[in-house]
Amino acid sequence: MDRLRAKIRDIPNFPKPGIVFKDLTPVIADGRLLGAAVAGLIAPFKTAGVTAVAGMEARGFIFGSLAAYALGVGFIPLRKPGKLPHLTHQVAYALEYGSAALEIHVDALTASDTVLLVDDLIATGGTAAASCELVRKSGASIAGCAFVIELDFLKGRQVLAEVPVHSLIHYAS
Ligand code: AMP
Fold first, then answer.
1. How far is the CA of 95 from the centre of ligand 1 (A)?
2. Beta partners for 91?
3. Which of 31, 66, 134, 165 is the S-S candidate for 157 at Cβ 3.0 to 4.6 Å?
4. Would you say 119 and 56 are in contact if contact means Cβ atoms under 8 Å apart?
5. Domains of the chain by range and CATH?
């Protein structure tokens, strides 16, 4: 985990002033670290009866589909509006400035599915909370949410309430 943390690159004032962007591309480019990150993400959920992994556009697609492969289950993309070609459920959520929305295909999951949500990073938790709502709209259950990075000071896990939250690297400030 120390090597993983050392490879995360801080980009100040991206994408806007005041935000320190946690750039995971150096981790993704390193095969051993990428493998270690994926193994860490799925570790608590190996015996949780997960039947599908859902990942948020776009960096959640990278870690989520690898986690799905490692668990031997399928991957469900949660996409920005207008990207999925079939009928969708949609959930809108607030951002620091403005709002955003995510969609899921209406037939992507069923009530017999147990889903692990995966994204690169949890900040305020708005994206993850909207993703949980989308999964629930599909009738499926949630095993938990897994993130490579958690920005503890933004208290994102509080908005996820009773959902188990697992993060590999924590930043206190
Ligand atoms: P939030 O909804 O506030 O928890 O934000 C989480 C989403 O925004 C994730 O999909 C992240 O990829 C992205 N994000 C938020 N803050 C950062 C940050 N400081 N560095 C990199 N990505 C971020």
1. 10
2. 102
3. 165
4. yes
5. 2-171 (3.40.50.2020)
pTM, entire model = 0.97
Residue 141: partners with Cβ closer than 8 Å, 6 or more residues away: 113, 114, 115
Report residue 125 as tokens. Answer: 């938790």
Residue 19, ligand 1, Cβ within 6 A: yes
Which residues on neighbouring strands pair with residue 171, listed in sequence order? 151
Query: What are the tens digits of pLDDT across the range 25-75?
Result: 999 999 999 999 999 999 999 999 999 999 999 999 999 999 999 999 999
Which segments within 79-136 are labelled E, that is strand? 88-94, 99-105, 114-122
Q: Quick check: CB of 124 below 6 Å from ligand 1?
A: yes
56 lines ligand 1 (CB under 6 A): yes
* Cα 64 to Cα 56: distance, rounded to the nearest angstrom: 8
Nearest CA to ligand 1 atom 18: 21
Catalytic residue numbers, as ranges: 59, 96
Residue carrying structure tokens 């990073």: 121
* Mutation probe of ligand 1 site: the residue of 62, 127, 152, 153 with most atoms within 8 A of C-beta: 127
C-alpha distance from residue 52 to each of 80, 95, 126, 143, 169 (Å): 20, 27, 21, 10, 24
119 CB near ligand 1 (under 6 Å): yes
